[in-house]
Amino acid sequence: MQFPFKLAAGKEFDVLGFGTNAVDHLIVVPEYPQFDSKIHLTNHIRAAGGQIASCTVGLSRLGFKAAYAGRFGSDSEGEFGLQTLADEGVDTRFSERREGARTQIAFILIDERSGERTVIWHRDSKLEYGKDDAPTVAAGLTKILHADAHDPFAVTEMAKTARRSGAIVTIDIDDMSDGAAAMLPLVDVLNSSAEFPQRATGIDDYRAALTELKMRFGSPVVGMTMGERGALVLADGVFIESPSFAVPGGCKDTTGAGDAFRVGLIYGILGGAEIEESLKYANAVAALKCRQLGARTALPNENELLSFLAR
After folding, report:
1. What are the per-10-residue average pLDDT scores of the chain (311 residues)?
2. Amino acid 32: pLDDT
3. Left if phi > 0, otherwise alpha if psi is -120 to 50, otherwise beta: which for 144?
4. Which alpha helices (H) appear in the chain, and where do they start and end?
5. What is the CA radius of gyration of the chain?
6. Rounded CA separation 79/163 (Å)
7. What was the pLDDT predicted at 175?
8. 265-283 burial code (b ≥16 CB/10 A, e <16)
9. How far from 129 is each of 124, 135, 136, 203, CA to CA, in Å?
10. What's the pTM?
11. How far apart are CA 198 and CA 190, in angstroms?
12. Which long-range contacts (CB under 8 A, 24 or more apart) does 179-185 make?
């Protein structure tokens, strides 16, 4: 099945990411610790993350022109996070460092047995965007605007500009924050976590919840990631299920797996693939990401992705 929209031509960027970046401190433990206990860690690293910044890195590795618009703190973590994007070839001209702000950080506990993670994070309020300070100029330069819902009023303004310029809008959403209800009708591809449809609609059944989301907000494509169960998408009245892939060598870390899924999905959209094929790309990128610690460490290049699928 084809996606029910066409990409604009003649844009400077293939994708513009607008949303969170972070610096992650990943800590591997033999098992998740019990309350009021002590446990030895077996590995730890500092790595750049954040769901939207990581997505732009993934798409840059796959050969697309990616840009990131977001805010970093004036601390050393901000310098580190911004440099990691530049090193990956992501255009950062619409990013900024906020004086006196601290870059978003996360401490992530990873269970060595399964690679599953628990995230403890904080985002400084000084990093937030409001309706009137969204970098809307950037939204007119791209084929796809990919955003999260942390600053929904700003995303709404970005999405309005993007759609006026012929871009499509994709969203990564976990919760119905204030302003999300006004933002979501501007979204072409609503892709969420497994928990979001039930939270947003109060409906436990996945398919019924996705149907309600589509009726309520009108997005042409609505879907959800389901971890090891793959993904489920509703488009043109048809449900499409796509199974996950086994992680080569075993799962080391699920941090950023959902972000990686969206990398593969957007890769398919940009390449003109059908929905079913795009979902295969999405699940494959997510599996390859889980090979190593960190949200971006093992994101594949195009040769790695296509070779993996060929096998």
Report:
1. 95 98 97 93 96 98 98 98 98 97 97 94 96 96 97 97 98 89 96 92 96 96 93 96 96 96 98 98 98 97 98 87
2. 92
3. beta
4. 51-61, 76-87, 136-139, 152-164, 180-183, 196-201, 206-217, 257-270, 275-289, 302-310
5. 18
6. 32
7. 86
8. bbbbbbeebebeebbbbbb
9. 11, 9, 12, 31
10. 0.96
11. 14
12. 179/152, 179/153, 180/149, 180/152, 181/217, 182/152, 182/153, 182/156, 183/149, 183/152, 183/153, 183/155, 183/156, 183/159, 184/216, 184/217, 184/219, 185/217, 185/218, 185/219
Residues with Cβ within 8 Å of residue 179, at least 6 apart in sequence: 152, 153, 156
Scan for tokens 């997505």, then name that residue.
55
d(CA 228, CA 246): 8
Question: How far does the chain reach from its first CA to its final CA, in angstroms?
Answer: 24
Alpha helices (runs of H) in 203-252, residue ranges in sequence order: 206-217
